[in-house]
Amino acid sequence: MLQTPPFKIENDKVDTYSNRLFALSCISSWFLVRQARRSWL
User: Fold this and answer.
1) What mean pLDDT comes out for the span 26-37?
2) pTM for the complete prediction?
3) Is the terminal CB of the chain with fewer CB neighbours within 10 Å at N or C?
4) Helix (H, G, I), strand (E, B), or coil: what is residue 5?
5) What's the first-to-final CA gap in the chain, in angstroms?
6) Left, alpha or beta for 20 (phi > 0: left; psi -120 to 50: alpha)?
């Protein structure tokens, strides 16, 4: 039976959190660009 060390689990949590944060920032920046374009035109 293989057991995952606790620090590995923590690393996975941090990875998913940072990935989520990255995706959120991408979406928000894309949304802001869209809004800016609309206001310019």
Assistant:
1) 93
2) 0.54
3) N
4) coil
5) 62
6) alpha
